[in-house]
Design brief:
It contains ten helices and 23 strands. The protein is α+β, with helices and mostly antiparallel strands and 472 residues long. The chain is elongated and about 75 Å long.
Length: 472
């Protein structure tokens, strides 16, 4: 990393797609419950995985356990499952194909199935960067560090001619032996984003003179890290949504020192992997959405509003679901945002559940007026019961009902939700107490983060949607 500049708090920003106000948060007790198991992605063990350039990996990619031999041959003879194909092997163990060096003159080479970075006297920070950019992903790798050095893994990072003559900048997951391994630093921009680095368990997670397993999870504005299965950092920041992965060799004035990386796997999660541009809107649909919003404000019928409607639509657009389930139709406002995306994509169906027959009938009429009735089925009844009758696989779910029912509704849907399905729960801020069981469950078992929005209510000026990517 670069020399440490003074810490600067990230400003709360409103970004494209109505991404919520960025809030700097840290909750270690919750993060510990989210710790993952396994040395490497379980789906990738014993099966073919995609190489960095998109080809199937062959012999030579290793399972790296400190106590085992380093040359286990995995030829991909086992049948490749869909789950295994989701993981990409960014480094094939034989070459630096798919990577390029940016900044500095440190030497990068492949030795014994590992990328070895060696310092060069007089060189600034050097980075070996992926040629491909990534947005939402889970990254797993192993690293071994000369204790004289610190280093880092860049995520969602960039090198732009207009920024300090191409200097690499962006989020960095720290590699160090002094207790800061796994914390988040903003390279060449704002300095430490992990302001509280005092947790003793986190500070002791990195092992000197040994291979250390890193796990990094980026979903939306959330960045979370683990070192050797110990949860370390949880940061919410919206400055950069996509960028390359980079391996840093820090500037160093002593005798040559090395940092090594191996078993570099990445799984794209598909929620924010790139900015989702809205397709040309159907004026007829938008007119109905606007009319329904005004009607909701007059009566009042509580609704997600335009800001969260745009965000919900962007998520649906990114996931490209075949089946969406909504629990809490009201008069169809959020369903219109969802159904519009399904219609534009030319595939997919929305099943929406409403307990009030009158509101369900009104929603059906709004879907009809918008020309979306052919992609929507409205069911009347208690979502806790009807959710159990849904037959999947379900790709996307939106929960916006009584706060205390979020858990039972999720229970009813869970067995039909596919691996990688996205579940969006509205009002996770103002309703957190009533839905605490649901929030603890998704945050401890799946990839989950809160997205915050401004809200004009007498009792609250912000609220959040909990966005969860299921991991089965």
């Amino acid at each position: 990393m670069s020399s440490r500049c003074p810490r600067v708090k990230a400003e709360a920003l409103l970004l494209a797609l109505c991404i919520p106000l960025a809030l700097q948060v840290r909750d270690r007790s919750a993060a510990r419950a989210r710790a993952a198991e396994g040395t490497l992605p379980a789906e990738a063990r014993g099966a073919g995985v995609k190489a960095g350039a998109g080809e199937t990996a062959s012999a030579g990619d290793k399972v790296g356990a400190e106590e085992r031999a380093d040359t286990q041959d995995r030829t991909g003879a086992a049948e490749r499952t869909g789950a295994a194909r989701d993981w990409a092997l960014l480094f094939d163990g034989k070459s630096l194909a798919g990577w390029k060096q940016v900044n500095g003159t440190a030497k990068y080479a492949v030795e014994d199935y590992a990328i070895v970075g060696t310092t060069a006297k007089g060189s600034p920070n050097s980075f070996l960067c992926t040629e491909k950019f990534y947005g939402d992903f889970e990254l797993q790798l192993e690293v071994k560090l000369d204790p004289r050095l610190n280093s880092g893994v860049q995520i969602r990072s960039n090198s732009l001619p207009e920024y300090q003559n191409g200097r690499v900048h962006g989020y960095q997951v720290e590699i160090a032996t002094g207790g800061e391994a796994g914390f988040i630093y903003d390279e060449a921009r704002r300095g430490w984003l992990s302001e509280d680095r005092s947790d003793p368990q986190a500070r002791q997670a990195f092992r000197k003179d040994a291979w250390n397993k890193y796990r990094v999870l980026c979903v939306g504005d959330s960045i979370r890290t683990w070192v050797n299965d110990v949860p370390v950092a949880s940061v919410v920041d919206s400055m950069t949504k996509t960028g390359f992965i980079g391996l840093q060799v820090h500037s160093f004035g002593g005798e040559p020192a090395q940092v090594q990386w191996r078993n570099i796997y990445l799984k794209e999660l598909g929620v924010e992997s790139a900015k989702a541009e809205a397709p040309p809107g159907d004026p007829k649909v938008q007119a109905v959405i606007d009319e329904v919003e005004k009607e909701c404000l007059k009566r009042p019928v509580y609704t997600i509003g335009h800001q969260r409607g745009e965000r919900l639509a962007a998520l649906v657009r990114r996931v490209k679901p075949e089946l969406v389930v909504e629990c809490g139709t009201a008069i169809g406002y959020s369903g219109l945002w969802i159904a519009r995306e399904l219609k534009a994509a030319g595939k997919g169906r929305l099943v929406t559940i409403e307990i009030s027959p009158d509101r369900a009938h009104e929603a059906e009429e709004n879907f009809r007026r918008a020309g979306l009735a052919d992609v929507v089925t409205v069911k009347v009844g208690d979502a806790r019961r009807l959710a159990r009758e849904i037959r999947g696989p379900v790709d996307f779910a939106f929960i916006d009902c009584d706060f205390g029912n979020y858990g039972p509704v999720f229970d009813g849907l869970e067995k039909e939700l596919r691996d990688g399905a996205v579940v969006v729960a509205d009002n996770a801020g103002i309703g957190a107490r009533q839905m605490v069981d649901y929030l603890e469950r998704v945050r401890s078992r799946h990839f989950s983060h809160a997205e915050w929005f401004e809200k004009d209510l007498p009792w609250a000026d912000t609220d959040s949607m909990e966005v969860t990517v299921l991991r089965k």
